[in-house]
Amino acid sequence: MSETKSWKEYYDYMEQKTPLTIYYPICGGGEECITACPYGEKIWDVEPMKVSLFGFNQKVRLRPVMKNPELCKECYLCVEACPTGALRPKDKPANHPLLTLVYNTLKLPFKRRYNIKFVFRPEHVEKFRRNNGR
Ligand code: SF4
């Protein structure tokens, strides 16, 4: 059985093969990006990877990865929907992940479409639980 890969390998894959990057240590795993994407599961999948929040308590978790990046239209709806700021256009990576996380968390109540209500939709709560092994 092959060993589960580190999030860094998926980060590198996303950076090299897709128009987006995901800094997995601040991705919550609620799949808001996949819900918001007009092509949803045609483009996205979730993969098991070793990941932790800022290096603490590393575990295998399911996180989004683009399986068919060639279908992406670069509309960035997924980026808008990402509650933590982990998902970004490739030319604007999260250079300061902690600040990105704090900024995006504070912004959440004031977002129109992809706000707290969107994040706490039952489907996202269920995905969060499943993807974080709860
Ligand atoms: S940029 Fe648009 S088409 Fe591409 S993955 Fe995100 S939501 Fe989907």
TrEMBL record:
| Highest taxon in the source lineage | Archaea
Tell me where in this chain the 4Fe-4S ferredoxin-type domain is found.
62-92
User: Which molecular function terms from Gene Ontology are attached?
Assistant: oxidoreductase activity
Q: Name one Pfam family in it.
A: Fer4
Name of protein: 4Fe-4S ferredoxin-type domain-containing protein
